[in-house]
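Summary of Year 1 activities. Much of the first year was spent building the evaluation harness for sequence design. The harness presents a backbone, in tokenized form, and records the residue chosen at every position. We chose the following record to illustrate the format because it has been used consistently in internal testing since the harness was completed.
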């Protein structure tokens, strides 16, 4: 299948790089978003996301005229749905954005078009939700137009490279749809584009992230056990990983982001009677922020009135993505325990949390603190010289929840260091 014009619905962390990459490969692309600030910003050359290399990628696409940004879809040869799929408080998937995007395509759907869903979705979404909506056009999925699912498989901080280099799984509602999807991704993907059916492709994405979630959960449980037994979990993991068939992941204050912390719940919703391990892993990881907050309380005693400098809010190092971040949940718990919390997130210094003071500099966040709490291993924080930090603050208690600081250096500089997953045999 040949493509002259492609419409990308949703200009977030996946949609915007995808739209720009297609445009820079010579395809006319219409990028669509319902957020007027996003649309107006991009129309004026302002990128609303931080991702290494994204500014240049988008600028090149816009300047070339191959990428235009609109608030409504236009007729095209293919439509890519890359909108969010969050979940409700009860952990059910919120498919309203996917539904709205599919409905917006209906007036522009023509025979021979391809519709591609990229949004992470529960199994059977493509066949049981998207297809019936699009068929309100009077056209039949698989017969009159192509319909497929292809999950994004990229790492924040590496999106631009991995979007091109990673293998791609494409699943169609029939073989012809899978072939059409393969034809589209072959435009820019250097990895292998592998064809399957739509539901298998949906499950592949959920399996990938659920596998990682379960493995992080066991690492987090190991951190609690090490704390109980007076062991350094980081040393223990390093030694255990010397076994040729063992690769224990890193514990931390929890699991965040829009994928690993969300996707397993789609399995729980779809088949609650079959997912005891998956559900338990999610519950372990969702409870980890409380374990991190308890470590801070152990370090300071009663938190009421204590001034805490929280370092980092992103869900992982060196990105501005705060979705489902466990660091934010730790801050909530410290605040609710009566602490006076100030936060510094270098990639989103203006992000606000009710009842919490946000600042745009490290020096400001630490100057009046009683304790420093490292919640995200941003390079800026990992590279701190504790001797210089000692000159900026009177705090002498530091809590490291991500194993980002070299213990001996901080202890030598006069700090009392508490580390997640490192218990004291004297307690």
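For this record, the design step produced the sequence shown next.
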């Amino acid at each position: 299948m040949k493509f002259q014009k492609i419409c990308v619905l949703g200009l977030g962390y996946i949609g915007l790089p995808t739209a720009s990459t297609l445009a820079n490969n010579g395809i006319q692309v219409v990028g669509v978003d319902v957020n007027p600030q996003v649309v107006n910003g991009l129309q004026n050359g302002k990128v609303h996301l931080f991702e290494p290399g994204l500014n240049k990628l988008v600028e090149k696409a816009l300047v070339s005229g191959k990428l235009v940004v609109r608030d409504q879809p236009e007729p095209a040869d293919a439509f890519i749905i890359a909108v969010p799929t969050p979940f409700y408080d009860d952990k059910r998937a919120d498919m309203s954005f996917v539904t709205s995007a599919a409905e917006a395509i209906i007036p522009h759907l023509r025979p021979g078009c391809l519709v591609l869903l990229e949004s992470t979705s529960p199994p059977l979404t493509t066949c049981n939700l998207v297809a019936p909506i699009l068929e309100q056009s009077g056209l039949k999925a698989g017969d009159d137009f192509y319909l497929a699912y292809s999950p994004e498989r990229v790492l924040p901080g590496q999106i631009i490279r991995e979007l091109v280099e990673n293998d791609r799984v494409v699943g169609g509602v029939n073989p012809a749809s899978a072939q059409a999807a393969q034809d589209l991704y072959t435009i820019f993907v250097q990895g292998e584009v592998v064809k399957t059916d739509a539901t298998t492709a949906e499950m592949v994405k959920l399996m990938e992230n659920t596998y990682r979630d379960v493995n992080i959960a066991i690492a987090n449980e190991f951190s609690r056990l090490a704390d109980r037994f007076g062991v350094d979990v980081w040393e223990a993991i390093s030694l255990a990983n010397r076994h040729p068939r063992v690769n224990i992941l890193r514990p931390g204050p929890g699991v965040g982001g829009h994928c690993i912390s969300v996707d397993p719940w789609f399995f729980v919703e779809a088949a609650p009677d079959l997912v005891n391990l998956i559900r338990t892993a999610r519950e372990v990881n969702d409870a980890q922020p409380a374990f991190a907050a308890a470590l801070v309380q152990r370090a300071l005693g009663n938190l009421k009135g204590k001034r805490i400098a929280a370092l980092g809010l992103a869900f992982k190092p060196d990105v501005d993505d705060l979705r489902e971040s466990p660091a934010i949940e730790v801050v909530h718990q410290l605040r609710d325990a009566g602490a006076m919390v100030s936060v510094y997130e270098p990639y989103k210094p203006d992000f606000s949390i009710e009842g919490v003071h946000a600042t745009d500099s490290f020096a400001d966040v630490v100057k009046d603190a009683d304790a420093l709490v490292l919640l995200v291993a941003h390079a800026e924080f990992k590279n701190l010289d504790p001797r210089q930090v000692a000159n900026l603050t009177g705090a002498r208690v530091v809590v490291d929840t991500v194993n980002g600081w070299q213990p001996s250096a901080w202890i030598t500089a006069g700090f009392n260091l508490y580390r997640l997953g490192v218990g004291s045999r004297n307690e």
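Residues 5-197 form a domain with the Rossmann fold fold (CATH 3.40.50.720). Quantitative recovery figures across the full test set are reported in Table 2.
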